[in-house]
Design a protein that fits this description.
This protein is α/β, with parallel strands linked by helices. It has twelve helices and 13 strands. The chain is globular and about 70 Å long. Bound molecules: guanosine-5'-triphosphate (GTP), magnesium ion (MG) and zinc ion. Guanosine-5'-triphosphate binds next to helix 8.
């Protein structure tokens, strides 16, 4: 039986913040609050019980649709249509225009918990996006760098996959780690295709030197080597997002964990050892063990959105020197008492690592200014629409 708690929905997160947010919403969401507030005691069984009661169909039309409001989880996004799991099973939904296009709700992404109504009469309406506990986003490659693209949400771990035989790249790993830490979840590094290399000790040591405090696991989806060491993360109700370049074996790992060919996989290109971008959309999959995986397409570009807090964690070794500099605004060039320069001289900090940090910081600053640009643009747009609303003659 599908229950929202199976799908990782934590009802305790609906108290407080959501309750007050719902107060400001429309009638239908007010009614959903009523059904949700009965669904918000902290025990799972109580929540499930009231959820399964949340589908009466008498009353007036608006009351009926409102009383059917239930939480659901987005399992895939197909343009404007959302594939969902709700307490009644799998369904599809479309965004409620007033809430999303005029109301400023965050557009749902795979892994999101949402509130839906109208279940049972074709596609349901998605009323709102519930607060995210973790969120992964990047610069939208199709937007000339001016928009944030949601990749996945509400996951507990980020598995960063790199293959031991061709994809191995420390600088790329630093980028993924920064994004993963920024998301609010815990990164785990998964080095794949162990069956194709004779030894990997050196690579593991290299990775560990730049991934301080992050678990590193070596696996082979083909021979099933190392899969047991993933069990500690693959616990019921946990959600794991798989990230990594095309061809590293994300979907092959999903299949190995499913015990079936759930996802299509295809051989990497022989001429340049690149993947073929086989997976084309993100999808949340329930594994037999009760954990959920979000498989993602290999990303061609790994543009950074806001990664300021992620950098602090992924470069904690570098930050330790930065914070020791004599001057708070040290540029680490020629200032006296520069702990970074001292660490570079003594060899405690490698020049590659320092350069990598500087590159990501530069990029983070750049995207922050883009974010500011976007906000200004949105404000301006809001101003224009308000002006048009208040002066309907302009439209003529
Ligand atoms: N030898 C070996 N090959 C593997 C292993 N895991 C995956 N592969 C092969 O690597 C190729 C790419 O695997 P996929 O699972 O499609 O890679 P992906 O990361 O999902 O790629 P995209 O969907 O394009 O992002 C396929 O030919 C797989 O059979 C492994 O553990 N050992
Ligand atoms: Mg794939
Ligand atoms: Zn300094």
């Amino acid at each position: 039986m599908i229950t929202m708690t199976n799908y990782g929905f934590d009802f305790s997160m609906l108290t407080g913040e959501l309750a007050s947010a719902l107060d400001a919403s429309s009638n239908s969401t007010m009614a959903s609050k009523a059904s949700l507030s009965t669904a918000s005691p902290s025990t799972a069984s109580a929540s499930e019980a009231s959820l399964s009661e949340a589908s009466p169909s008498t009353a007036s039309a608006s009351e009926a649709s409102a009383s059917k409001a239930v939480p659901a989880r987005v399992t895939a996004v197909h343009k404007e249509r959302y594939q969902l799991i709700c307490p009644h099973g799998q369904t599809f939904g479309r965004l409620k225009t007033a809430a999303y296009f005029a109301g400023g709700e965050l557009f749902p992404t795979t892994g999101d918990f949402v509130l839906v109504d109208n279940y049972g009469m074709g596609d349901c309406r998605i009323l709102r996006t519930l607060p995210r506990k973790s969120f992964f986003s990047r610069l939208d490659p199709s937007s000339s760098g001016h928009a944030e693209q949601a990749v996945a949400s509400n996951f507990d771990y980020v598995f960063i996959l790199q293959s031991l035989n061709y994809d191995f790249n420390l600088r790329r790993m630093e980028r993924y780690l920064t994004l993963a830490w920024q998301s609010g979840a815990i990164p785990v590094i998964v080095l794949t295709k162990a069956d194709l290399v004779s030894s990997y000790d050196e690579q593991v040591a290299d990775i560990q030197s730049i991934a301080i405090g992050t678990d590193v696991v070596v696996i082979s989806a083909q021979s099933r080597f190392g899969l047991d060491s993933l069990e500690q993360y693959l616990q019921p109700k946990q959600t794991i997002v798989f990230l990594g370049s095309s061809g590293v074996g994300k979907s092959s790992l999903v299949n190995a964990l499913m015990g079936s060919e759930r996802m299509a996989v295809s051989a990497i290109r022989e001429d340049d050892s690149k993947g073929r971008h086989t997976t084309t959309h993100r999808e949340l999959i329930m594994l037999p063990c009760g954990a959920m995986v979000i498989d993602t397409p290999g990303m061609r570009e790994l543009g950074m959105w806001d990664v300021s807090s992620g950098i602090d964690q992924s470069f904690s070794d570098v930050m330790q020197y930065v914070n020791q500099c004599k001057f708070g605004d040290c540029q680490h060039e020629s200032e006296p008492g520069c702990a970074v320069k001292a660490a570079l001289r003594s060899g405690d900090l490698s020049p590659e690592r320092w350069k990598s940090y500087q590159n990501l910081m530069r990029e983070a600053k750049f995207t922050q200014s883009k974010e500011a640009y976007l906000k200004i643009k949105q404000e301006k747009f809001k101003g224009i629409s308000k002006h048009i609303r208040n002066n309907p003659d302009i439209r003529k």
